[in-house]
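re: the backbone from monday

yeah here it is again, tokenized this time
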């Protein structure tokens, strides 16, 4: 009887590790927005902090790091929300041992 072996995990860059930490932490939901012109942007909304008045802005994540995490199967995209100008996907960390992402991007 054959059993599936786990995929070897490639080491993360420091930037990739930080992005994966932010997504895994799930303190603020991360989304991928794909605009009608094909431009992609990963990011999250940072709410206004009650102390110090910091935040209240959109925080972009490095697209190349996020794309590498998606290609490596470390993050997955949820069900898209589509409107005429853009499509937005929720982003979450992949479950350990997950084989494929539910949504593949076409570039």
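seq for it, each position gets an aa:
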């Amino acid at each position: 009887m054959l059993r599936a072996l786990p995929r070897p995990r490639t080491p993360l860059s420091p930037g990739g590790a930080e992005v994966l930490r932010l997504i895994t932490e799930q303190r603020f939901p991360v989304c991928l927005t794909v605009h009608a012109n094909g431009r992609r942007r990963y990011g999250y909304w940072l709410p206004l902090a009650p102390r110090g008045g910091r935040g209240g802005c959109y925080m972009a994540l490095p697209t190349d790091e996020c794309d590498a995490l998606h290609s490596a199967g470390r993050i997955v995209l949820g069900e898209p929300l589509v409107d005429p100008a853009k499509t937005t996907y929720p982003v979450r960390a992949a479950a350990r041992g997950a084989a494929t992402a539910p949504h593949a991007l076409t570039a």
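The first strand starts at residue 30 and ends at 35. The beta strands are 30-35, 40-46, 57-61, 75-77, 81-82, 86-93.
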